[in-house]
Design a protein that fits this description.
By secondary structure, the chain is α/β, with parallel strands linked by helices. The protein is built from ten helices and eleven strands. The two termini are 30 Å apart.
């Protein structure tokens, strides 16, 4: 079973003192090639491409210019510990034990605009490049053209070694769109998280993102897999709703939030 997550715009590259068996991203060579394209952009072009303010564009441009093409673990940090934001508040990788993070390495895959697909302990450098951006490259007009075949093939290779060919899609639509699901040799389940607002249950972005991270954490900590493991998720006060669920889209409801 593989669990898909989106990355985060917010990063934390404070050095970690944890001694973890870190790894090199599977598509590092392709990331290096893509960075070579992006390095040619000016600050103004980065601002336009990513729809950023001048200050944020300068930061994103600086990340690109500082990105080292030669593999250098000293300049990097494990992805699961570097990403911050709502999903990663839910995952809370800092409080997972070393054994749990090593287990997560086999289960979680983070889709990335720069790296294609990452494992939790893959070392990454600071970057900002969302998957939906239309960065022209040798393979086409956008990052989907650059990554779709490569990410899909990578996932298929990993699924071939999995006990059950099940994907739990906890990524956003923007990132999940990089996968050619028609070519993916797996059953795909996309959980939906709804909170009560007024008289109805609705998907509230902030809460839904955090719930995705919590579900990923649920799998890592419980060592469980399969549909029963999905339906048993109850972190944060959510409960599986059979009536609103379908085979490929289980729905989880929450009446109130203490967050």
């Amino acid at each position: 079973m593989l669990i898909l997550l989106s990355p985060a715009k917010t990063l934390d590259f404070t050095p970690t003192e944890r001694d973890l068996p870190t790894t090199k991203p599977a598509l590092h060579t392709q990331a290096k090639q893509l960075t070579g394209v992006a390095k040619g952009l000016s600050v103004e072009e980065v601002a336009k491409l990513m729809n950023l303010s001048d200050n944020l564009a300068a930061t994103a441009h600086g990340y690109l210019q500082d990105w080292k093409a030669k593999w250098d673990p000293a300049a990097a940090k494990p992805a699961a510990l570097a990403f911050r934001g709502d999903v990663y508040q839910g995952l809370d990788a800092d409080t997972l034990t070393d054994k749990q993070l090593i287990r997560a390495q086999d289960q979680i895959r983070i889709l990335s605009g720069l790296y294609g697909v990452l494992r939790p302990l893959d070392l990454i450098q600071p970057y900002r490049l969302e998957m939906g951006r239309k960065l022209a490259n040798p393979r086409g007009k956008d990052l989907y053209a650059w990554w779709s075949d490569r990410v899909t093939d990578t996932l298929n290779r990993e699924l071939a070694e999995s006990k059950d060919r099940l994907i739990v899609n906890l990524a956003s639509n923007e990132y999940a769109a990089v996968i050619d699901f028609k070519r993916l040799d797996a059953e795909v389940v996309t959980p939906v998280f709804k909170d009560k607002k007024g008289d109805a249950y609705k998907v509230i972005s902030f809460f839904a993102k955090r719930a995705r991270g919590r579900m990923a954490r649920h799998f890592v900590r419980s060592r469980a897999s399969g549909r029963r493991a999905i339906e048993s998720f109850d972190a944060g006060g959510y409960a599986h709703c059979v009536e609103q669920s379908s085979a490929d889209s289980p729905v989880f409801l929450r009446d109130s939030s203490a967050e």
